Amino acid sequence: MTGLPTSSLQPTSLQHFLAEQYTAELQAFRSMLDSVPAEAFAAAGLGHSPAWHALHIAEWVRLTVLQDRTPNYHHLGWEDKPWVGPMGTEAAPLNEQADKTAILAQLDSVGAEAAAYLAAASDAEMQGMTFSPSAPTGERPRLAALGLHVRHIAYHRGQVALSRKEQE
């Protein structure tokens, strides 16, 4: 903060802060995915392929941030749980064998939509409870869910990085 005039510091709303955090983490995740050669993108490493990780995060951003309940989820990672069944009754927009460019475009599109939603969200939209299957009651406070989800993106970025090191 030294060297900056106080008048140039603008307060940041919670919504803009969240939008910035999602944008930053998704950009870091995207950079890691970009480092994976196209021919290795659908190859599993440490359990899942980079393509799966990208689709997984795109789906969780849709579910957690956008609260999109379109029943075409196939990469949530909990497909053996009863609550996932009704969420995957339609075909997935993309699968792991799709072109790397298409998968990354999907991730970018969902990420941009999420950042725009968060930046424009009302205070009321940031309050209350939201669906969170890993919580004991199946839901958690909206802000807590959003914070956990940013860390979830970072976790999967690390998984892709570890997988890349294993393959070198």
TrEMBL record:
Q: Which domain of life is it from?
A: Bacteria
Pfam families, from UniProt? DinB_2 (PF12867)
The DinB-like domain covers which part of the protein? 21-160
Name of this protein: DinB family protein
To which species is this protein native? Deinococcus oregonensis
